[in-house]
Amino acid sequence: MINNPVFHFVLAVITVLCLPLFLRSGVLASEILIYGLAVAACNLLLGFTGLLSFGQGIFFGVGSYVAGILLTRYQIPVPEMLLVSLVLGAVIAIGVGWLSIRRQGVYFVMLTLAFSQFFFFLAYTFSGLTGGDNGILDVPRPVIAGFDFTDLWNYYYFVAAVFLLVFALMLRTTQSTFGHTLRAIRENEARASAIGFPVKAFKIAAFAISGAVTALAGALHAMLIGVAPLSNIEYHSSEIILIMTIIGGSGNLFASLLGAGSYLVLADVLSAIWPRWLLLLGLALIVVALFMQRGLWGLIESLVSSLGSLFRRAPAPAAESSAQGQTDGGKA
């Protein structure tokens, strides 16, 4: 049951409903869902396809810039802006993926890292379009269908609706034939190719979906903080998304939300305790790397498995007592 997609969606709904009850900050609650989308998109590449990409920040930054440019300069309605961010994110991801998958292993990783740096310097160079160091300021959260998104909690509910819709679609994708083929490629690419699967096409398709969802998350993030910063497209953004993926656990979409929420809440708590909170965060990541190599979701699975084994063994003593009583009665 714990690995049932329906159960994962129910967990996501419960998380969305509980965040406003336990968090006072609408910004933090919205960020958890936004980064949850970005991490789920990264998980599609890493956990389901076996592709360790350092280029996720490209798509996150592109989505931010699409929101900044279209909302501040052209006053494009939000639904159309989000659609443009999805399409542009997918198109750029197809280009990056098509070139990157020509190499495997460390060379693939280096290519995605090189593309990340390339797009960062493009954004930095064309400051007339992207704002350069300053980014694009005053990205609005307009009124949509009577809802004033300048109120942070109203905006949270909008983000929650988008998150649940995309999360459900991604769950459906990972459980489809396409998703099972991605797992086959992750486990044994040579065998998948020998069977007849067009491995490169599936990898590019995974890149396209991942890029589209990550760009959508970037657009929502720009609206949340009111700025499309240069930092969203740099290497550090890719690093954060990857760290969240590893913390939550790869190969499971709800683990993506778990990883994003754990990282952001931990960062929020630690930053209030000590200015050098990144040292404490580093220690926490070392613990995860050494003792929880399947992430927080792997730890939960182990605990559930242990509890299940304990409950299955519990009736054994009672059965032994009953059998002993029958033996004694027979002797008498």
Helix and strand topology:
Blueprint: H1 5-22, H2 26-49, H3 56-73, H4 78-100, H5 106-125, H6 127-130, E1 136-137, E2 143-144, E3 147-148, H7 152-174, H8 177-187, H9 189-195, H10 199-225, E4 227-228, H11 235-248, H12 253-273, H13 277-291, H14 295-313, H15 316-331
Antiparallel strand pairs: 1-4, 2-3
Helix pairs in contact: 1-7, 2-7, 2-10, 2-11, 2-12, 3-4, 3-10, 3-11, 4-5, 4-10, 8-9, 8-10, 11-12, 11-14, 12-13
Could you describe the 3D structure shown?
The protein is mainly α. 78% of the residues lie in helices and 2% in strands. The protein has 15 helices and four strands. It has helices at 5-22, 26-49, 56-73, 78-100, 106-125, 127-130, 152-174, 177-187, 189-195, 199-225, 235-248, 253-273, 277-291, 295-313, 316-331; strands spanning 136-137, 143-144, 147-148, 227-228. The chain has a two-stranded antiparallel sheet. A hairpin with a 2-residue loop joins strand 2 (143-144) and strand 3. Helix 2 (26-49) packs across helix 12 and helix 3 (56-73) packs antiparallel against helix 4. The longest helix is centred in the middle third of the chain and has 27 residues, at 199-225. The chain is globular, with a radius of gyration of 23 Å.
